[in-house]
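Input chain follows. Return structure tokens only.
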Amino acid sequence: MQSYQIDRSAVASEIIDGEAIMLHHGSGDYFSADGIGAVVWQWLGESKSPDQIVHLLETSFPDSSADIAAAVDAFLAELLKHELIREGASARPTAAPSQQATDLGRDFAPPTLHIYSDMREVLLLDPIHEVEEVSGWPVPKRPHAKP
């Protein structure tokens, strides 16, 4: 059985008010997903397999079941592409869906990953070595003039 896990060594994430916020330490990019995308992210954090995720969504949206597997696969491919998740060992059975799963709305909307790179330079600064001593983070060191 295919399984994915959040790459916690490279990603910091939190779900706040139904929105998943993820920061990739290596790239300096940050990401968000709301609605069903946030629920899928939460379920990945709970070690649910793609098959389990699809099944839970098909149960919640029986009229959209034909579109759900492709939408989940596309979302997982996007998460993999940006190295937010990685392939893992076979998924182990997990408990019943979390409470958030019951508030998915009435209509299925494919999960979408929003990508932001506008803060990349600031997020990638090494706050100990690459900043001005007097100003500190987030002011990068100015290049020194050569004599």
